[in-house]
Amino acid sequence: MTIDFFSAAFAKTETGQQEIQKRSLGLSPLVRRVLVLVDGQRSGKDLATFAGDASIDAILGELVEKGCIEAKPREKPEKAEKPAQAAPEAQVQAPAFLARLPAPEERSAEQNEMARNFMINTVNSIFGQHTRISLIENIARAQGTEGLRKVYLQWESAMAENRIGAKRLPELQDKLVNVL
After folding, report:
1. Are 30 and 60 within 8 A, CB to CB?
2. What is the three-class DSSP state of 99?
């Protein structure tokens, strides 16, 4: 059976549960982090947010191969019925927001730095310091306006998944539009 790592949801197996306790398989810190985040509800797309620049397919493939996780049918059939080309939910609003922005070449390095700092500060204030480290690292590493706009999608998704972040997202977007 071929697994679509991007859209499939994953659940920990008993081996995966044991690995979290015993650390006997020698997983890298990134692969272990993804294993810890597997909850039976998150898809590969959801988990990719936490993988930084690494390939989520490779990480999930390693975890499946080692018997730590298994693909599981989605519990909400209406999502499974969407065509494969449908935009992920977190990205449905993003193009509308990004479409409001001026061309990337119109933004200065100073504005990029302001956008970067704004995004990092909002993550730290909504989620607390030392959480969402991979997102903060992705924001910090983003090169220029185009890079920041790509990582914006991860930022928006993280905000939308948090109760306070979701409530404040329109306000935060209105502030970010001035520099992103």
Report:
1. no
2. helix
